[in-house]
Write a structure and sequence with these properties.
It is a single chain. This protein is of the alpha/beta class. The chain has two domains: 353 residues, Alkaline Phosphatase, subunit A (3-Layer(aba) Sandwich); 69 residues, Arylsulfatase, C-terminal domain (2-Layer Sandwich), CATH 3.30.1120.10. The chain has 14 helices and 15 strands. Strands 1, 2, 3, 4, 5, 6, 7, 8, 9, 10 and 11 form an eleven-stranded mixed β-sheet that branches. The protein has a four-stranded antiparallel β-sheet with strand order 12-13-14-15, covered by helices on one side. Strand 13 and strand 14 form a beta hairpin. The longest helix is centred in the first third of the chain and has 36 residues. It binds calcium ion.
Length: 532
């Protein structure tokens, strides 16, 4: 409860309730009605006899013919302009949708081999688009992963990582610095409509919210759904095994106001989906960027009535199957609105499964470890790209790619300039997506908090430090590093360092090059708000 109070204390003037917002809407409508009634052209005036009514019938017919021709010409002109605009838009300004699950593992979807979770919509998305086998989130936990996705930069550069607090909490003072350029801000320079619907987790104070970071609108939770836990809930992990909405006083926000507290978590996937569909429909005639970071399947797990108790995988499966339904709804909306051929949709997850939560955590499939660690299970994720007519159906890519790459890829497709005054860690994925070439990404850096733990180049991955996701206080140092061939050994079981001194030397050079252009950002995760 202390955390919840501190949230209120930081931003008293900006908090309002849903009811207050509705009341404001009514006031706006009443004002508009008055303006119409007091207009300068009362209806009665049009009924008065004028000079025109006394003219001859021939003159009247001539005028009507002229007006008809003029109207036809104007309509034709408008139609031509609209057609040209649509054609230009298809070439230059595709829509972008990011569907971002929370703590979903590499092995949690049907199309990634899960035997009991049903994901027909994501499976269809993969069958119609491209499925990546080697796609990485930029960090093994929420906050740094999201910062990297939205900026195209490793979180160590923006300061959104820390060795003492791994993510932002309700009593955190920091957030995404204003100097960082988000994908939404960059796309706004090209006239995109933007919306963030879902979990933010890049700062809950007013100056850090999505609406201050390039998003026209925001609907969702400002941080994780397991935060703001009430003091009298069950102890330890027991609370997660039988979760009740009231155990977490986490707020649901619209723009900069609290709409509901505690958020009714069982309804979130459904309501995010409804909001997303409305946003797409509202903006179907202009380019848009929809960022939809789902709250599920992060513990505490919830699903709406329609999905609760339905999955053979239990509650975790219920949550994932509802997300799958949501993806289906969104893709169907794009098809129905004839937007499918001008929209790139990307589905992935912010980090691997939270294995500490046993059955309530997901699965990394054959990959080692999970959330929090730089073993493959912590950061390799399902990655599915969909763009009918542009991406070859049923394509499978084994190229190295990352959430870091979405920033430069989207900007290149939108013909928006890529910031040149800072290091961008992402590369343009267009050659992979459209089958025109190989990945420009040769190397991937695995960070745990502020430390570089491992490097991958081609099939080889060297671990300089290893530490399981949670429960072990210090990392283990490796000199010489552990080396795995991820093609032969995706589960990282067989150290082949002694057979490949040349590879280790090459990776050491990559690390040195990386270190040379690394300027850590001002730490954002350590400062705490004053408790009241
Ligand atoms: Ca997460």
């Amino acid at each position: 409860m202390l955390a919840a109070c501190s949230f209120h204390a930081t931003r008293p003037a900006r908090i309002s309730t849903g009811f207050r917002r509705k009341a404001q809407g009514c006031e706006e409508r009443a004002t508009l009605g008055n303006a119409e009634n007091t207009g300068s052209t009362p209806t009665g005036l049009r009924l008065r006899p004028t000079e025109e009514t006394k003219r001859s019938a021939g003159a009247s017919l001539q005028r009507r013919l002229f007006e008809g021709c003029l109207l036809a010409l104007i309509s034709f002109g408008l139609l031509q302009a609209a057609t040209t605009q649509a054609a230009t838009r298809r070439a230059t300004s595709p829509n972008f949708v990011i569907l971002f699950a929370d703590d979903l593992g590499y092995g949690d979807l049907g199309c990634y081999g899960h035997p009991t979770i049903r994901t027909p919509n994501l499976d269809r998305m993969a069958a119609e688009g491209m499925r990546f086998t080697d796609f990485y989130s930029a960090a093994p936990v929420c906050t740094p992963s999201r910062a990297a996705l939205l900026t195209g930069r490793l979180a160590v550069r923006s300061g959104l990582c820390s060795d003492t607090r791994r993510v932002l909490f309700p009593n955190s003072a920091g957030g995404l610095p204003a100097e960082e350029i988000t994908l939404a801000e960059a796309l706004k320079t090209k006239g995109y409509a933007t919306a963030c619907i879902g979990k933010w987790h890049l700062g809950h104070r007013p100056q850090y919210l999505p609406t201050q970071n390039g998003f026209d609108s925001y609907f969702g939770l400002p941080y994780s759904n397991d935060m703001d836990r009430v003091a009298d809930s069950k102890l330890g992990q027991a609370v997660f095994l039988d979760p009740k909405i009231d155990y977490w006083q986490v707020p649901l926000m619209r723009d900069e106001s609290i709409l509901e507290r505690p958020a009714n978590q069982a309804t979130l996937t459904r309501r995010y989906t409804e909001e997303a569909i409305q946003f797409i429909r509202r903006n179907k005639t202009r380019p848009f960027f929809l960022y939809l970071p789902y709250t599920m399947p992060h513990v505490p797990l919830f699903a709406s009535e329609k999905f609760l108790g339905k999955s053979r995988r239990g509650l975790f499966g219920d949550g994932v199957e509802e997300i799958d339904w949501s993806v289906g709804q969104i893709l169907d909306t794009l098809r129905r609105e004839k937007l499918a051929d001008i929209t790139l949709v990307f589905f992935t997850s912010d980090n691997g499964p939270w294995l500490t939560f046993n059955e309530h955590g997901g699965s990394a499939g054959l990959l080692r470890d999970g959330k929090g660690s730089t073993w493959e299970g912590g950061m390799r994720e399902p990655g599915i790209a969909w763009w009918p007519g542009k991406i070859k159906p049923g394509a499978v890519s084994h190229e190295l790619a990352s959430t870091l790459d979405l920033f430069p890829t989207f900007l290149a497709l939108a013909k928006a300039p890529i910031p040149s005054d800072r290091v961008i860690d992402g590369v343009d994925l267009s050659p992979i997506l459209f089958g025109t070439g190989k990945s420009k990404r040769e190397v991937f850096f695995y960070y745990r908090d502020t430390e570089l733990f491992a490097i991958r180049k081609g099939p080889f991955k060297a671990h300089y430090l290893t530490q399981t996701g949670y429960g072990v206080p210090k990392p283990e140092k490796h000199d010489p590093p552990l080396l795995f061939h991820l093609g032969h050994d995706p589960s990282e079981k067989h150290n082949v360092a002694k057979n490949h001194p040349d590879v280790l030397a090459d990776l050491a050079r990559e690390w040195e090059r990386h270190r040379l252009n690394l300027v850590p950002g001002k730490p954002q995760l350590d400062a705490r708000l004053e408790a009241n």
